[in-house]
Amino acid sequence: MTPRGARGDRGAVTAEIAIAIPAVVLVLVASLNGLGAGVALLRAQDAAADAARALARDASTTSAAGRAVAALPGGALRSDRSGDVVCATVTVRPRILSIPIALEARSCALDGGR
């Protein structure tokens, strides 16, 4: 025998779990994608630092861009010189929940090639 008030709650736990499990999976996937984006940003920072040092040693822009793209597939390099400093900016576009976001990392080095 079931208590009189329990009949209306039959299946409530199943419905709550059916809502909770997809929400937990969504949060887990978003967290893993965010972690991947963080790793991509760290790799972009390393690639920007390498490219800035290479450009400061008077390497060609094409060579530095090739090294940056080799270190970070899908990355793009932009460089500029200002006085005694050469700066490299690497842009990468990871996806979080299928939404592409643009992340930029910038690094500068003293221009020793001039």
From TrEMBL:
The chain crosses the membrane at residues 12-32. This is Flp pilus assembly protein TadG. Keywords: Membrane, Transmembrane, Transmembrane helix. InterPro entries: Rv3655c/TadE (IPR049790). It comes from Microcella alkalica.
